[in-house]
Each structure stands twice: as C-alpha cells, then as structure tokens.
Amino acid sequence: MALRFPDEPLYQSLRAEDVKGFNAQRESIETIDFHDCDFRGLDLRGLNASGINFSGCYFRAADLRGIDFSQSNLAGASIASAQISGCYFPSNIEACEVTASVDKGMRMRAR
After folding, report:
1. pLDDT string in tens for the chain (111-residue length)
2. DSSP 53-92
3. Residue 59 contacts by C-beta under 8 Å, 6 or more apart in sequence?
4. Domain ranges, residue 7
C-alpha cells in the first residue's frame, strides 16, 4: 500500500504541524478522509480528531499525546514508536492492538 500525501489545505496544515489552524479550518467541514496518509514524526498534540478517517495511516514516531481518537477510524493505522500518553482510542480497537502497534509497528485491527 502506498502512502498518500494529498495536496489539500487541511492535510498540509497538519504536515506543517499547524494544529491550531487545522482545528479552526475543520469546524466548517463535515467529513474528513485522510485514509492511508503519512503523519510520520509530526507533533499533532491538541488535534481535534473527532470523526476523521485515519484508516491505514502511518503515525511512526508522531507525538499524539492527549488526542481523543475515540470518534475516529484508526483501523489499519500504525503508531509505531509514537507518543500516546493520555490518548483515547476507539472502543473497537483493543488495548493489545495499540500496544502491538506502538511496540512492533503492526497495523491496528478493529473488531
């Protein structure tokens, strides 16, 4: 699977680590689909992730601390070596999937 790098303003805001700008822009957008996108090594603390499709995304070594992903789609995403302290994950992803993804880079399976 090839990772995507869309040329859309919301994605580019996150690539530039402009989380505040992203959060302000996303207020007027109903659905956001970032499936299979690359977020490697980014500092995304403070991100409003509610309702975003992050399926298949790659978050290797990203700083995700404190993000509430409980209303996001993370099926097939990888969070290898990411900082996840204080994160909320969707209820359809078991804790062992999160741990395996952080430790081994495995993609998280949703049930």
Report:
1. 678 888 999 999 999 999 999 999 998 888 899 999 999 999 999 999 999 999 999 999 999 999 999 999 999 999 999 999 999 999 999 999 999 999 999 999 999
2. E-TT-B-TT-B-TT-B-TTSB-TT-B-TT-B-TT-B--TT
3. 39, 40, 42, 77, 78, 79, 80, 82
4. 1-111
Q: Does the predicted TM-score (pTM) go above 0.90?
A: yes
Angle at the Cα of 107 (from 3 to 46), degrees rounded to 5? 75
Residue 73: what residue type? N
Give, in order, the Cα–Cα distances in Å from 7 to each of 10, 14, 37, 62, 90: 9, 12, 11, 20, 27
Q: How many domains does the chain have?
A: 1
Could you count the other beta carbons within 10 Å of the beta carbon of residue 67? 21
Contact 23, 43 (CB under 8 A): no
Q: CATH number for the domain including 103? A: 2.160.20
Cα–Cα distances in angstroms (integers) from residue 103 to residues 10, 15, 38, 49, 78, in the given order:
29, 24, 19, 23, 10
